[in-house]
Amino acid sequence: MFSNVNNWVYYLFMKQFTLIILISLYVAACGGGSSSGSATTSENHTVGAPGKLTYEPESCSETDQIKFVNDVMHDIYLWSREIKQPDYTKYNSQNQLLADLRYGLDDWSYIVSKEISDAHYAGDNVGLGLNLQYDLEHNNAVITYIYKDSPADIAGLRRGYKITSVNGYTIQDMTDNNSFDAAFGPNQQGYSVNLEYLDNTGTAGIVNVTKDSYYANAVNAYNIFTNTTNGKKIGYISYLSFTANYISDLSEALTAFKTENISELIIDLRYNSGGLINGAKYIADNISGGSWTGNIFITFLHNSKYSSWNQTALFSSPLAHVDIDKVIFLTTSATASASELLINGLKPYIDTHLVGSTTHGKPVGMYSFEYCGNVIAPISFQLLNSRAEGGYFNGLEPDCTAVDDTEHQLGDAEESMIAAAINYLETGTCAGSKSTSLQSSLIAEKREGIHRIFNIR
Fold this sequence. Notes:
alpha+beta, 2-enoyl-CoA Hydratase, Chain A, domain 1, seven-stranded antiparallel beta sheet, Pdz3 Domain, globular, 26% strand
């Protein structure tokens, strides 16, 4: 039979790249059990211990898995009372049923294989190791970041390079025909991708990059600047996603910040679409200096049936003890879920400001339930800070606007968003942000499932 294993790990994903908060609940294996053939509704399911369902598929047949998806969505789902009641027996696809059941505000609930989910959260990826945003006006794709020691990095590609062709597909081909997956091919070791590009000097080049495994370190860059107004040290960190290895990934930067006694911090979440809430809480704990230990960081509220699962996450004693007076978050529409939770959770306690553009807007989270080698992640609760503030479906608005400047590397004080943040710390005012038609026309590829948060090629 199936067994629930509660790891008490919270995840958050995003909408455009799928954000969610997940309590990692695993229904272990495909087991037996006899099916009566009758439809079981969510009203028949009792509420178990927090994080554990009291039911599972009768078997791993597609029919029983579809029924399980229907039961989950009419039970633990935050909007279970608002969604329709289709005849699930007429469906032959779990994902199609899920898509039809999702409430209007929900652009995030999904089903994915456990193998893919586990690999992404462990930071163990196979591919090129780069993120792209597409410039439809100029028919190219701009590399926004590259993971260190990934195949793309080893091949010499860099942030700001403009990809003009992928395995013979032009960018217009890919966007007009939604042929991104066909162009990049499967994420399999040994698969070669031919890229034509313009480097940061405008020089054309061609490179064959072979997909391989690489470690996705969430800290892409960090630096330390000096506030020319008050002489304080300013820490900067680019954090790409809240994966499971947040302690080791953050260790070097946090140690440097502590050694240099920084008191102002710029956290760059412009590409961060979510991940483990433990990672967000770890950052919050470590910039508190320990003064907020025991206070409420965030509260989780479920639907009325599961109100007994409502709970709060409290600040814990930090390891690094970096005492911060003021924090600036760099944000875009890709900033989502755990990133937004971190911002909202810190606001009651520290001088917090946003520079960039409005965030994605996902003030809700999900559990993750494993079944038959799959994971279903339904929106299951809303998120509030210690002042009961939440509901930011329209996103969190910036104090100062600024645009991504791919002509400079992340961590460079001259990069447009970083420069705007430093200026705000020094003057308390918003500087005019460098903007070009290229930067204003960049869009992200909209993908499905877990690839919405880990939007990496």
